From TrEMBL:
Name of this chain's protein: Proton-conducting membrane transporter
Keyword Transmembrane in annotation: yes
Keyword Transmembrane: yes
Provenance organism: Halobacterium bonnevillei
Segments passing through the bilayer: 12-33, 71-94
Source organism, top-level taxon: Archaea
The entry's keywords: Membrane, Transmembrane, Transmembrane helix
């Protein structure tokens, strides 16, 4: 037979009420937020090519199709470092300890 969870400690009411209040406030903010119209780069620009030219230092070769890509380049490099750290962390966690420090 299954039973429903019971509140055993009245001190758990305060964090629950705070969580519900935070949910209500965030819901009101998100539902009432207004977004402006989308603003593109206009014209015939290729963001991917611009990032590639910026990585190689060849923005002068890109011509008229290049846009300011410093923000994109910084985000690209930050994400690359974060993914690299996640990969190294997963490899570190996946390796087994062959020393057997606890007698196994």
């Amino acid at each position: 037979m299954t039973t429903r969870p019971r509140l055993r400690d009245p001190s758990t009411f305060v964090p629950g009420i705070v969580a519900v209040a935070l949910f209500v406030v965030l819901s009101a903010v998100f539902l009432n937020a207004g977004f402006g119209s989308a603003v593109g780069f206009g014209g015939d620009v290729n963001i991917t090519a611009t990032i590639g030219y910026a990585l190689m230092g060849l923005l002068d070769v890109a011509g008229d199709s290049a846009v300011a890509s410093e923000g994109f380049l910084a985000a690209f490099i930050i994400v690359a470092f974060l993914l690299d750290a996640a990969l190294e962390g997963s490899v570190l966690l996946a390796t087994r300890d062959t020393e057997g420090g606890d007698g196994e």
